[in-house]
Amino acid sequence: MTEAQDRTELLAKLRARATSLGFSAFGVARADARPDLPEKLETALARHWHGEMAWMAETVERRAAPAGLWPGARSVIMLGMNYGPDSDPMSDLSKPGIGNISVYARNRDYHDVVKGKLKEIAGLVRRWTGKEAKVFVDTAPVMEKPLAEAAGIGWQGKHTVLVSRDYGSWLFLGAIFTAAEFPADDPHPESCGNCRRCLDVCPTDAFPAPFQLDARRCLSYLNIEHPGPIPHEFRTAMGNRIYGCDDCLAVCPWNKFASATREMKLMARDELRAPALADLLKLDEVNFRALFTGSPIKRIGHARFLRNVLVAAGNSADGTLVPLVEARLGDPDPLIRGAAVWAVRRLVNDARADALRLAFLPDEDDMSVQAEWSAAVRPARAN
């Protein structure tokens, strides 16, 4: 048997094991398959589309190519796990009394689940080839989507998310860099055609052009990565999205071939499917950590999460939430206080808003919260 035949046989075994572990997609790319990535990354950084994600600029040399992260890499094995939902997540946007959580975060943290399975595959690579292999799941400076495209798993759609003919826009991605040289798969051609549903549905116009994303306007960036107050121009557009935003993924026509898998159903946390805003507004730090143990939501912290919930409350037009929102006006954290000011001014009448301002503003020592109270124009009340 030639070395090429041996490697092909090993790949077939790896693919079979990956399938048994719950992976839906498997492909291989050469480590140097995307020489265009450094220029694309530099362009995005030069235009400041990364917002306050400073780590993108700090890791640019390692992020731009697999060899920059690990010079020993020769092949990249890309794997995808289908997390397609069992219902249309867009339907939850019309329920203002609940907090809408991105589909991927309604389950156990995929970083832990996928990484454990990748480590098993990487162990087989080491054992069968005698070559080193390293595992990466989202947290390392790896451009998984273009590498997955090069590995034939799918293509980066106009919304910049990987799209698969079989699984739509619902794939968790993981990468195995290895010093072993495997035969590469053919890259997947871009197959969006004239469709622009993902671009047109975006509530904040976050796409400067097809295949380009300005994170500074993206609700997923704003309610997860952005550390400060949600910019005023995007608060109404947030609606009830308290963690992430699935709009551009959910409208992709290729989703018609995706379906919820047994693995995802086992990982699902029903309590995160449609949590009531009233319950979330009551969370203190201890209860927040308890509720979101094993969830990616935990990493944004209590204050940032309550900021999001309060914006959703302000958009709800639900007067029953007013006492819970008012209770946050005296919160120790200014990020929470500021969001509570905006929310309460949206929910109560002018007389009540003025009374609250007179009660809280004189003792407020944070400039951003003072600005919320002192805004010349009250935010339009939610309808």
What does this protein look like?
The mean pLDDT is 90. The radius of gyration is 23 Å and the shape is elongated. It contains 19 helices and 8 strands. The longest helix is centred in the N-terminal third of the chain and has 20 residues, at 110-129. The protein has helices at residues 3-20, 37-46, 54-58, 60-63, 66-69, 110-129, 144-150, 197-201, 219-225, 232-238, 247-250, 262-267, 277-280, 285-291, 301-315, 322-326, 334-347, 350-360, 367-374, and strands at residues 25-30, 75-82, 100-101, 133-136, 155-156, 162-163, 171-178, 241-243. It has 383 residues and is α+β, with helices and mostly antiparallel strands.
